[in-house]
């Protein structure tokens, strides 16, 4: 029935955002019309989180979050940095893994993280 997910990210500079996904993240893509690139993002998973939880009484402002996962955060950061990526903030650690925000031209940063659990697509 459901075969995958299609993520839309809105950018103030779509050409620069697409170039980042193509040249820095090196995602494979198809071109559906001139300059209109649709990127393959590999396996995916979806979670439904509460907007509040114990210790956080103010609701999370976002309703949707897109994160990119990797097998080895340190190696991924080194490879991305070698291709010109810049990171916002420091590496963080949570019970679900460790990650960092990568700056994306034309839009807000995206989270890149190494899960500490076996991803849903591996089950």
TrEMBL record:
Entry keyword DNA-binding: no
Coiled-coil region list: none
Example of a GO MF term: dioxygenase activity
VOC domain boundaries: 3-115
PROSITE patterns: VOC
Keywords: Dioxygenase, Lyase, Oxidoreductase
UniProt xrefs under InterPro entries: Glyas_Bleomycin-R_OHBP_Dase, Glyas_Fos-R_dOase_dom, VOC_core
Protein name, UniProt field: Catechol 2,3-dioxygenase-like lactoylglutathione lyase family enzyme
Source species of the chain: Microbacterium thalassium
């Amino acid at each position: 029935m459901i075969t995958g997910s299609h993520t839309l990210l809105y950018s103030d500079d779509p050409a620069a955002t697409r170039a980042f996904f193509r040249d820095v993240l090196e995602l494979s893509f198809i071109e559906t019309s001139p300059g209109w690139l649709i990127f393959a993002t590999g396996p995916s998973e979806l979670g439904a989180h509460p907007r509040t939880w114990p210790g956080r009484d103010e609701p999370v402002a976002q309703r949707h979050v897109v994160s990119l996962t990797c097998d080895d955060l340190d190696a991924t950061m080194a490879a991305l940095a070698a291709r010109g990526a810049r990171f916002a903030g420091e590496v963080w650690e949570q019970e679900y893994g460790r990650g960092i925000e990568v700056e994306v031209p034309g839009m807000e940063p995206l989270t890149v993280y190494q899960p500490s659990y076996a991803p849903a697509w591996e089950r």
